[in-house]
Amino acid sequence: MTSTPISVHFAFLAAIAAGMLAGLLLIVAAVLRLLLVRRERSAARSSARWHMLLLEAVDRPLRPMPRVGRREAVPVLILWNRLYESVRGPMQEKLRNVARRTELDVLVAGMLRRGDRTHRLIAVTTAGNLGIPGMWDQLLSTAQSSSPTLSASAARALVRVDRVRAVTVVAELLANRADWHPARVGPIFSEAGPELALALAERLPSAHHADQVRLIRLFETAKCRDVLPAVRHQLDTAEDGDVIAACLRVLSEFRDPRDAWVVRRFLSHEASFVRVQAAAALGKLGVRSDEHRLINLLTDPEWWVRYRAAQALVSFPFLSADHLRSVCTGHHDRYARDALRQALAEAGAQ
Amino acid sequence: MRRYRECRPRPKTDTKGDDTDTYGPNRLLVVEDDPVLAGMISFVLGREGFAVDFAPDGRAALSRLDGPPPSLVVLDIMLPHASGHEILERVRMTPGWAHVPVVMLTAKNDVTDVTRAFGAGADDYVEKPFTPEELVARIRRLLRARV
What we know:
Chain A has helices at 6-59, 73-86, 90-101, 104-114, 117-130, 136-143, 148-161, 163-176, 182-192, 194-203, 209-222, 228-237, 241-254, 260-264, 272-285, 291-297, 303-315, 321-330, 334-346. Chain A is mostly helical.
């Protein structure tokens, strides 16, 4: 009788262990999947039940409302917020009234205190839509949290709760939060009104260089013309190329023809990225006499400057495609011809 | 398989049986893919006595063109499978549907969508988020004009 080598035993045991492990993982995955499906179905049921309840309650202000169960809280709050944000006018006030009768505000306060990040995000959004002044401190504390999404949402909620009071607080937050995405900052500006952009503009002269650039870029998101005097002043005194480029972007965004002469000053700036912005801005603000300035820029050593100058020329409504084609063929510089030809082709005018 | 949810909450006018063809002048087709918004529109219009048929996406809306026309269509622009603009063009080319009033639901401040919708034959539009009273008023105005 021959004895089996120990390595075979070991391989056999390893195979059994691996099989058991794989089986266990399969069971865990199946259980997790089942739990997820159950949770989704439960949420869908809650959502369907509360959808009708909330809508019917809008028309029956005296009708008693059931309490929202702990497990129903998230789907109900998501549903309420979606309903609230789908409508305007008196319906919004009616939905706020329904929320108070359903004690959603109590639910939200609890979630803000104890919830995980997702729950707090839902709570913050609801608190903003409910506009309850009593939640100010909780929202302020959330707005100072490290999570960019949560803090930006809380800042927006502060604006919704009390627009006037929020201006100073949110301006301070905006000045210090480089991690807020412009997509989240835009709605804050549009709901806060021009006061918020002006509060930021006041901070501009005393801000550090890096913050200055960021603040100026925020003005593009703010879409508020009231900041233009502050930007022009900054451009007058700025020496740093990044600040100048940011200011030029803002000026081109608002397309005030009075700014064309300021922009022209920077067409010959030593930094190529400033010349790029100046050319792009002149494309939006320029007049007929700017044609030769931009044609001169077509011979710039930097490709991006030539390209933006060519795009600016093509964007002028008073220059015909035929005229630009003749400029292109008559130009002595091969790179200038290339840039203009490309811009014309992109505009479908080659 | 049911392709449309028929939502008729508390209609004030006569609603006989389950056949949508019997609803008379107040039968509306709402093409909207967001179930929350669809439910809201159904509730608001049902409260005002309209019978509402829903198409939850562009494909369902297009297949609806084989049937009898409703009194009016409320049409979202951003839809799965076929956009509101495509559906509108097909509506205007379909016999029996060509003169059905169409109210478009557009995103706020989207001038391009509004211009394109009017160019394709839309009768009116309502911006989202909308005021329910405004939607009802616009629908009533178009239905009155049709009579």
